[in-house]
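Q: Predict the bound structure with glutamic acid.
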Amino acid sequence: MRLVAKLGSSSVTEPDGSISLLTLKDIARQVSQLRDMGHEVVLVSSGAIASGLKSLKIWERPSDQVVLRAAASVGQGTVISAYREIFATFSLEVGQLLMIPGDFAERTQYLHARETLNSLLDFGIIPIINENDALSNEQLRYGDNDKVAALVANLIGADHLLLLTDQTGLFSADPRGDEEASLIQEVEEVNSELLEIAGGAGTDRGSGGMASKLLAAKMASWSGVACTIASAQEPNVAIRVLAGEKFTGTRVRPRTKRLSARKVWIAFACPSSGEIVVDNGARLALLSRGGSLLPAGVVEVKGVFESGDAVSVESDDGNVFAKGIVQMGSRDILDLKGLGSKDIGGRPYLEVIHRDHLVLLT
Ligand code: GLU
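A: Predicted complex:
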């Protein structure tokens, strides 16, 4: 089986920013065992910023993005050397991959990432991925690695995504403030109610939090990949998860219908630049006939966007039910809205969103 396991900053580093050697050693032992059983493992690891801040002798996370980028540059070296040393004690080599959101969007980079990862796995190397925080732009970066891990799981056709954190899983309320909160062990479908329960951000050492994990679990599920959210301290968690044994944590079922990588990216990883409101006829054509969105069905356009941007599609009651990449900018759509092919003279009648670039969110 192919496993993508993600470790957050709060698992990779101690509260003072030093590397959590015990956790890393335990992960390396499990990875080594899994490899001996014939499984393939890719790690997605945070910790660069938390570790780099310690090296820069900054004891509270600053808001200055340039300082955070500098910290990531220093800390990434520390994190990867720690992994290299620890994995070497199990006779395993590691390979580093630093990715930015664009790498999942640009076809060439995307294919290169996939080829590199497959090649590393063929060589028996353990790939360790992080977002390229030293160069990433605040508006564009993912910030937490949960999404990166879900996109990687989709990219390499993983069987399982394991999100390791400092909590035991998803709770029915925030366990840090509510004693009644109970662990949700099995999630059939990540819906808005669950996302609401997952609520706010994580620790000040990382930027993930449970909501981000649940969204990543949803991305995995829509990619046909099973997902588990569990504590990095849960004994033998990676081994037990792949063996289908009992453990404490939250499992999210994969959907039977697998979305393509591009559609997962459109649906979850690409920010929406505006909204298009459509009439009921268009809504039904999209939902039940798998059609493209035509100018005739457009009622209203919100926001200013260009051809190639991602845009949400909503019905006239404000319910967002799809998202897609538009083939024309907002100005052209406003010009053509409500018009059929016969109404526009000899001009070419383009789809607003072609069905190949449209994802139904229902
Ligand atoms: N990729 C990050 C890291 O490795 C992100 C977490 C953060 O923003 O602190 O440090």
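A: The CA atoms of residues 153 and 208 lie 18 Å apart.
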